[in-house]
Amino acid sequence: MKKSLWQKDIDKNKYKILNKNVSTDVLIIGGGITGLTTAYNLIGNNHSVVILEADRFLCGATCKSTGKLTYLQDLKYQDIYNVYDFNTAKLYYEAQKDAIKLVKKIIKENNIHCDFSRSDSITYTTKKEEIPKFDKERKMLDKLGVKYYTTYTTTDFKNDDIKDLIMVKNTYVFNPVKYLKGILDVLKKHNNFELYEKSRVCKIKKEADYYIAYANDCEIKTKKIVVSCHYPFFTIPGFIPFKTYIEKSYINATEVSKTKSYNAITSNYPVISFRYHKDNDNCYFIYLNNSSKLCDKLNYKRNYDECLNAAKLITGKTPNYVWTNMDVMTNDFIPLIGKVSDDEKNVFIATGYNTWGMTNGTIAGKILADLVNCKKNKYINVFNPSRNINAKNIKNLISNTLFSNVKAYTFNLIKKNPTWYKNKARVIKSNGKRVGIYIDNEKNNHVVSNICPHLKCFLTFNEVDKTWDCPCHGSRFDIDGNVIKGPSCYNIKIDEPKI
Ligand code: FES
Description:
By secondary structure, this protein is α+β, with helices and mostly antiparallel strands. The protein has 2 domains: 14-372, FAD/NAD(P)-binding domain; 415-485, Rieske Iron-sulfur Protein, CATH 2.102.10. The chain has helices at 33-42, 76-83, 86-110, 131-144, 176-188, 300-315, 357-372, 380-383, 391-414; strands spanning 16-17, 22-29, 49-52, 68-69, 117-118, 120-125, 164-168, 172-173, 193-197, 201-206, 211-215, 218-227, 244-256, 262-266, 273-278, 283-293, 321-330, 336-339, 347-351, 425-430, 433-439, 445-449, 460-462, 467-469, 476-478, 483-485. The strands form 5 sheets. Strands 1, 2, 3, 9, 10, 11, 12, 18 and 19 form a 9-stranded mixed sheet that branches. A 7-stranded mixed sheet has the order 7-6-14-15-16-13-17. A hairpin with a 5-residue loop joins strand 21 (433-439) and strand 22. Residues 416-420 have low confidence and may be disordered. FE2/S2 (inorganic) cluster binds next to loops.
């Protein structure tokens, strides 16, 4: 698996692995920015809190982020306005600003060294036909009272290529892993917090007035549950697979001689997003491209090469780090944060950050902690996961969610043995079942089921990472069938078939 730039800063300390039954007031599933910010906001409330991370702490979605903390998020405000109204767009804007304030406060209160620095944010386009959208976004920003600029001088842009841009100040970048390491250090000092890693929750059962969650063959008895694991592993309640779709992108980081204090993103597909980063030792140029729906662009090797080559063209160097990222997207551009359904008053989720995970994960941590404490929060309604589907986003729901899933399913049904596998991997039928086989350099067969345990999509072989990947909702498995990324929580191991 390729490593992200932040991975070098991951906590060397290992945490306990759950190996006994426990009882707690609050169970937090997922130890990324959402789970840890929720826990941080619960300090001082006297709850007992158990945090379970499926992988190692800080190795999940947060570690794949580009680490931007900005309220200028491509052309987000008009997108939200087009589906809802100005007030909803305003609340979303205020939530992003509050999230940035909260990160600053946490850093200051705990003296966290996480390379936090100011970085102007730019949305730009290289396409003339996008200009009317920029005019509309400027009108939205005027109404929101946001000060913005329409020019920016940098040698990174060829000015002739830029057809329009919006720039705002008072936005930031940071190292998300160092930041969360700081929060983990705070949590470790509190006796009422228990942290476990390599402890994947696979099932939740409701009892009279409590829940039992299961991980590593152990039971966790709890009154309230916060599901903050990027993408919930269950379908009911919440029906998240029917409200979201996944986008995948390729990111790289290249050592450069100096940094610049701005970050940028294009408003149009294919999305390009970049920023600079400086840590104690080096300066980096971080570059994201090839963003697409998970079911599109399934030629992993070609995507990877394109990502490397694009960065090489800009910096003249081969990137030092290359990694992939998956984002959960919603059809109405607003994350799903809050009670998982109206019937489940004590199960809370947070997902669907639409590529803006650092601010949305932070504000989710505040909203979820307030919900656990039965406190008011002005953002509860706007992010409510059970909000009604509005006629204006039905079109998005059909084209994004339904069409993506059908496409992913049928593509793999037809294309069992794509030529890019280069005969290292193939899919066959054995006793009526689809089986994936990878042949390693020593000519050993690694045999797995080709069906994703989550919602039964067919898996594709990822030649770059040597994994079996699900094009529907992003589960991933190693060549021996061990699940390495959810929502599936089950392996795909099987006995070797007779061929
Ligand atoms: Fe949902 Fe595979 S079917 S992740």
